[in-house]
Amino acid sequence: MKITGVTLYQYNIPLKAPIAISLGTIDAARNMLVRIDTDAGLTGWGEGSPFWMIVGETQASGLAAAQDVAGLLIGRDPLAIEHCLQAILRYLPGHPTTRSAFDMALYDLTAKAANMPLYQFLGGANRTLVTDETIYINDPERMAEDARRIEANGGEAIKVKLGTTAQDDLDRLAMIRQVIRYETPIRLDANQGWDVPTARAVLSKLGDWNVEYCEQPILKSNVPGLRLLRQQTNVPIMADESVFDAVDAIRLVREEAVDYLNIKLSKSGGIYEALKINAVAEAANMACMIGCMSESRLALTANAHFAAARQNIRLCDLDACFEHAEDPVLGGIVYDGYQITIPDVPGIGAEVDPVFLANCTSVHIG
Ligand SMILES: [Mg+2]
Q1: Where does the signal peptide begin and end (predicted)?
Q2: Active-site residue 2, yes or no?
């Protein structure tokens, strides 16, 4: 089989409302789509959601780089996934989200060629995932209102974005904790917003608030600081921005810096590297979470296949599309409340509605 063409799409999805985290605010999901065509008539789809404050790439830089990457792939056999991905990585060591869109499209194609759903192609079983829902930074009353709504909708876990000042963040948590049942765990994510003393001040005051863990309390490069917080507080620590690839995972394991890893295909450069990160974590007896940026249900479905394929991925945060004002995806994962069902058709099993795509700017290479 040979790759005959690649089409790149500017894939913009409006949000219901702007999303604020400690690193900044986004007002739309400015994503990219990759479609790979072959001489066998099979087509692969991949999506990237470049969250520039975390991955350092934008839709524009990603699409520019993607044109060169597409040129590298024309004429190659897409079933030789590793060969294709090594060629991409050598050319483009940065831009993990852009690389992940190509990785996803190649896995979609190969699983289709094998006539298997992607989770099965990866060696897994179809299992139901249960996602949390995220509350973004706002005033405490508004965040408490969101928490109450999520619990009323049947949410089993609530993820709370923090990372401002210790007092403001504690006020937010106190108000949220007042309005939800004690049994509903709270997951924290400071997105690097605290320094070590601030993180220690917040995390040491959460004794009876049923906090499941804290994601990325401090700067991603401060691995010794993560280790210190892990030793000095009772809240389990999860790396997110500190772990992009398997080399990062090895360092975090070696330095005993964290309790969990948050894997996102948009950070790892796709499924191929994500499997390696999980393998490192699993060997170190460390569970992983599957997470997301602002993907539509296409990339969320690919993330769900990957998570279903590895039992060590025990926590799930695949809620990005809850914030989208439009869902242009046909097929894909189905949400029943917070339960996610993965499609049992070959490949990822999701495509973007051609009517929506007709209005997206695109470029064809090949
Ligand atoms: Mg995070």
Answers
A1: none
A2: no
